[in-house]
Amino acid sequence: MDFIEELTWRGMIHTMMPGTDEQLRKEMTTAYLGIDPTADSLHIGHLCGVMMLRHFQRCGHKPIALVGGATGMIGDPSGKSAERNLLDEATLRHNQEAIKNQLSRFLDFESDAPNKAELVNNYDWMKDVSFLDFAREIGKHITVNYMMAKDSVQKRLNGEARDGLSFTEFTYQLLQGFDFLHLYQDKNCKLQLGGSDQWGNITTGSELVRRKLGGEVFALTCPLITKADGGKFGKTESGNVWLDARYTSPYKFYQFWLNVSDADAEKYLKIFTFLTKEEIEALVAEHAQDPGARPLQKRLAKEVTIMVHGEDNYNAAVEASSILFSNQAREALMKLDEKTLLDIFEGVPTFNISKADLEAGIPLLEFLAGTTQVFPSKGEARKMVQGNGVSLNKEKVTDPNMTVGADLLLNGKYIIAQRGKKNYYLIIAE
């Protein structure tokens, strides 16, 4: 496989330094991509860069994932409106290990292959460098005029950020340049990968290598991922879509991909899966025949969920997704963990009741129209029960004189009431 050809048809190249293609065809090349370690999980905003590293390794080259322990402490002016908080070293190391565990789903760190992946942390080579050493060895090679000309700096200086640009952030491109210099010297790294917002910082690094050592290095960036409607990719109402199941459940992760637009689904299949050009073209043709069946979204959600969370979690997410639309979903509902249950029924009306009352038993009509307000009156509740329009935990209730007890509790705490086909209620017993 040819790395540049592969990324080109997938729409994953924004800008590339002249000579990059020739360098990659000439020899096995080492490239690095920087990752911000301010959290102990990656989110899907990181995925395009991670996929670039994966393609790079699949094409026979050596990828380095650089955790920005030092640079992550001060904040990058590219597209950011505020500086970051300093992390202590213990937090940094914890985040680094968590990120490596996630990356190991995508990259081979363990084999004895000559192009096995490496994880490095720039804190390790920056922590003992004094300010005087940095000013003498790095700062003197790059002029202020050169640094001022960068778009990221200009935007901040021209009022994009309320508080302007601090000296700390101004030095960011020099620190990132120092990374490239160090990796070039230490690991013969000749290519830096990143998002298009990093182009200014990356070219500062290549300029530093050229001016200090006379070396030739290269740069390649991917476009920032957008949505067809102009909205920000990877953000939901509840925030980032994380790769760690503690922060975004596999169900919610699966749902995110399942609900993208048709135009986005085709684009994302190219960027976030390893399906071939022919496979994607076949899916696009199938989708055109029956858009309502949503084959693009279903395949996208399947591929990315399995890649990040594994097949078992994917199958559980598919089963959980059927609960709202199936009358035969009682068994699936009983197996749900609490987080997924709450994710599925997020936003539905909620009623809190006494667990002690439930243990004593509550007459059904009292439960539906007294203890809770699923119905405005017992008469209306009775009528709908008799008409087969009420379910508890996806099971029809037909006897208006039955008693609701604690045996119905899911995860020892919840009951799902359903009125008609589409009206759900979450009852929490405490």
Please supply descriptive tags for the structure shown above:
430 residues, alpha/beta, 5-stranded mixed beta sheet, 21 helices, 46% helix
Descriptive report:
A hairpin with a 2-residue loop joins strand 11 and strand 12. The protein is built from 21 helices and 15 strands. The protein is elongated and about 85 Å long. It is of the alpha/beta class and 430 residues long. It has a six-stranded mixed sheet with strand order 1-6-5-2-3-4, with helices on both faces.
Number of helices: 21
| Quaternary structure state of the chains depicted | single chain
Distance between the termini: 58 Å
Which stretches of 5+ consecutive residues score pLDDT under 50?
none
Shape type: elongated
Set out the fold topology:
Blueprint: H1 3-9, E1 15-16, H2 20-26, E2 30-35, H3 47-58, E3 62-67, H4 89-103, E4 118-121, H5 123-126, H6 131-137, H7 144-148, H8 151-160, H9 167-170, H10 172-187, E5 189-195, H11 199-213, E6 218-222, E7 235-236, E8 239-240, H12 250-258, H13 262-272, H14 277-289, H15 295-309, H16 311-321, H17 330-335, H18 338-344, E9 350-353, H19 355-360, E10 362-363, H20 364-371, H21 378-386, E11 390-392, E12 395-396, E13 403-404, E14 414-419, E15 423-429
Parallel strand pairs: 2-3, 2-5, 3-4, 5-6, 9-15
Antiparallel strand pairs: 1-6, 7-8, 10-13, 11-12, 11-14, 14-15
Helix pairs in contact: 10-11, 12-15, 12-16, 13-15, 15-16, 20-21
